[in-house]
Amino acid sequence: MLFSLINKYISINPKNDILSGLTVALALVPEAVAFALLAGVSPLVGLYAAFTIGLVTSIIGGRPGMISGATGAIAVVIGTLVAVHGVEYLFAAVVLTGVFQIIFGVLKLGKFIRLVPHPVFLGFVNGIAMVIFIGQVKQFKVDGTWITGEPLMIMLAIIVATMAIIQFLPRFTKAIPEILVAVIVGSLAVIWLGLDTRTVGDIASIKGGFPAFHIPDVAFNLDTLKIIFPYALTMALVGLIESLLTLNLIDDLTETTGQPNRESIGQGAANLVTGLFGGMGGCAMVGQSIINVKSGGRGRLSGIVASVALLLFILYLSEYIEMIPIAVLIGVMMMVVIGTFEWCTIRLFGKVPTLDIITGISVAAITILTDNLALAVIIGVILSALSFAWESASKIHYEKEQNENADNVYKIYGTLFFASKEHFQELFNPKEDTDNVYIDFANARALDHSAIQAIDKLAERYKRIGKTLHIQHLSAECRLLLKTAKNLVEVNVLEDPTYHVADDKLA
């Protein structure tokens, strides 16, 4: 029974999880080093973050199979903090980031990530794919100069060979993850052939000790809080948005469902721990998560193995890991780009609303240009909301008929809210209407206070010329607002059967 419980919680396929975890660990090294350098901290600060964040989120997070660690999104946020105030303030900010994210999860706010519109999600995924691609292109520069000649040809040959192994090996066998095979074969081939190409060791040394517990060396006062608070809040938002959107992506790839609130708590706990063990903070990693899933990693064991293997690399195997050619890892990440990019979006042109296309492109462009995923997603959500409001506003209309007294009856269809209130007013001409006018909301909905004001304004237009407006089938909530709102004209609301709004108790 104990084995069954452990098997269910940690892994349903230990072999695949172990092999995929080792593959991910190899890919984590250059990424963590690169992001640390981008943030202006020691490479070990990035590697320690990859270890601690990856381990904690794999154990207690809400998305088995998802990989977390040091990321470029976080590195961009913290660069100024490190440059101006030093690395100790960074550690303090990371701890506070963890606290914010735990609160977010405890309040069960993670569920709202499900409300992110699909065009925004597509823009996020495509933007991330392009960011990864641009990151690989930058590897063709050394000290600001583009690689040319024979070194360039060697790099391109290694990249193509690596991509070919990943693409075609699964046709012959799936016993071993193709990415792991590509890394090992590519590295051994370069060493055996004596090819002169850049390796992980050329970027930085990854040798170090076990991360030590370390309380940030800062003054615990209000001044410190004023410094770290904006950075911590930004990191918390950026980290959660990237993590929860990555969770959705892995959900789609694996056809399973993660737990956003639990993942928020897991990310918070991970950042809190990494801040106390000399890490730079981080969140879910799209590229590494896809590598893990594509390599067969599904359980928590894959992330645990990746984190522990990374620590072993730091402690004992650094000289061997530093021999891995950069070109091999570029080849791996290029295949990640191909697998991440939603190619179906190209076929959507002309088939979906133009505003949806604009939203997706905007999110991708902002992601690429700013590396600020939170900003990109927030703007995308706003654009989608405006698009929805515009479309809904234009759909409100009526069907006109007369009752037995020859009074005009308008049956309203659509949604009355802030965006459609002006169009609603334009539908009516009180001067040409009957003395008694009936507006039937049985097939419509009044959503907000702007809708109530629109109804009152229309009633006032009829009242000025001595005519009466009667409202039918308005919801109980709207009738209450009409009866209790101050300084609003009186509207004759006809009594109708009670229509309840479905809520959690009725559902």
TrEMBL record:
- Name the SUPFAM superfamilies on file: SpoIIaa-like
Organism equals: endosymbiont of Bathymodiolus septemdierum str. Myojin knoll
Which keywords are on file for this protein?
A: Membrane, Transmembrane, Transmembrane helix
Which compartments is it annotated to reside in? Membrane
Coarsely, its chief localization is: membrane
Q: Which residues form the STAS domain?
A: 409-507
Which Gene Ontology cellular component annotation is one that this UniProt entry carries?
membrane
Q: Superkingdom of the source? A: Bacteria
The name on file for this protein is: Sulfate permease
- Determine if Transmembrane is one of this entry's keywords: yes
Q: Which InterPro entries match?
A: Membrane-Transporter-like, SLC26A/SulP_dom, STAS_dom, STAS_dom_sf
Q: Does the keyword Electron transport apply?
A: no
